[in-house]
């Protein structure tokens, strides 16, 4: 198997990103610096920056469909349109045809789910499911308790008032917010309502799925427990 595909299959990063890391001399195979286009076999030890690659959370072929969690970097667009430079499908470069579940602004980073199973997208996104989405936000001015209370009660955007949500402070210039909605640029518009400009926005959780230690550009397969939390009652995945 090609080294870049092996790295991608473990969920460390896309094949394109793997080639970049190989070219920079950050990848070794059995202790030797790897070259772009190298092949690897069963039993070979592949390391990035001296760290052994994590293996798949499930064996290949166990599931009918692909379900992955990606740490989307800033600058990647959540679209399947091949004409859009920096689209998320080309970025992940998965061997299966996958697409994002929901969206995350181009200027934001963090957790987004992708799948090859179109039948479950609406089931996950339906508003009545009230799937929590958790974000860490940094803004340009100090955040008061009054502002946080105002956000939690609801803010007028897009001709409607946002649903009640949960907020808590994160230092002087940041806050944590947990939503069950997914309106376009919702958090940025909520902050703007209080004269705040978002400088950094990271989504760290979608329902039972956490960003945890994934670095920007890395992805992993969802576990069975995570899928059961996203799709209660589903017999197979």
Automatic annotation (TrEMBL):
PROSITE patterns tied to this protein: PSI_RSU (PS01149), S4 (PS50889)
EC numbers on record: 5.4.99.-
EC class: isomerase
UniProt domain RNA-binding S4: residue ranges: 1-55
InterPro entries: PsdUridine_s_RsuA/RluB/E/F_cat (IPR042092), PsdUridine_synth_cat_dom_sf (IPR020103), PsdUridine_synth_RsuA/RluA (IPR006145), PsdUridine_synth_RsuA/RluB/E/F (IPR000748), PsdUridine_synth_RsuA/RluB_CS (IPR018496), RsuA_PseudoU_synthase (IPR050343), S4_RNA-bd (IPR002942), S4_RNA-bd_sf (IPR036986)
The reaction(s) this protein catalyses: uridine(35) in tRNA(Tyr) = pseudouridine(35) in tRNA(Tyr); uridine(2604) in 23S rRNA = pseudouridine(2604) in 23S rRNA
Keyword rRNA processing set for record: yes
UniProt keyword annotations, A-Z: Isomerase, RNA-binding, rRNA processing
Family that this chain belongs to: Belongs to the pseudouridine synthase RsuA family.
Protein name listed in UniProt: Pseudouridine synthase
Organism of derivation: Luteimonas fraxinea
